[in-house]
Amino acid sequence: MFVSEAFAQTSGAAGAGGFSLDSLQQFLPLILIFVVFYFLMIRPQQKKAKAHREMVNALRRGDRVLLQGGIFGQVAKVVSDAEVLVEIADKVQIRVTRGAVAEVLEKTQPVSAVAEIEEKAAPAKRSSRGKKAEDSVVQPAAIPAPAAPTADSGSGDKAE
Fold it and tell me: Fewer CB within 10 Å: N-end or C-end of the chain?
């Protein structure tokens, strides 16, 4: 009986179906808790999941990986969008899902990057081919001869 009278008194102050400041104060702590949880827990987890998804999608043959079970290996073959073949020892290969890869330890260089490195090294090799043999030999720097001793700087034996 008292509940209905108390409810009737608060609703009369807010008007018929209106929004009161008291109702906002009741929900404000819940809203603040949700905002804190979002920025401290949900958002970082989403960023971590996105980074892991990008890492797994970028797997290539030759990458050294750590699987979630603690097994180290090297990607031998990318079987499909969902599976990779990982070599964990000589001639021992296991087929795992891409999600089982916890971390990429060492990335292999893309084919285009390897070609660029070889192109940069190739001009240096070509330029040394056209030189004469004596031009390519590095001459040692001339070392000055020690100065001859003078009469004043004798050996320290003085006749008295």
Answer: C
Q: What is the 3-state secondary structure (H, E, C) of the chain?
A: CHHHHHHHHHHHHHCCCCCCHHHHHHHHHHHHHHHHHHHHHHHHHHHHHHHHHHHHHCCCCCCEEEECCCCEEEEEEECCCCEEEEEEECCEEEEEEHHHEEEEEECCCCHHHHHHHHHHHHHHHHHHHCCCHHHHCCCCCCCCCCCCCCCCCCCCCCCC
pLDDT value for 145: 63
Model pTM score: 0.52
| Residue 100 exposed, middle or buried by CB count within 10 Å (0-12, 13-18, 19+) | middle
Span 60-111: which CATH code?
Answer: 2.30.30
Question: Both tokens of residue 7?
Answer: 């409810």
What pLDDT sits at residue 44?
Answer: 94
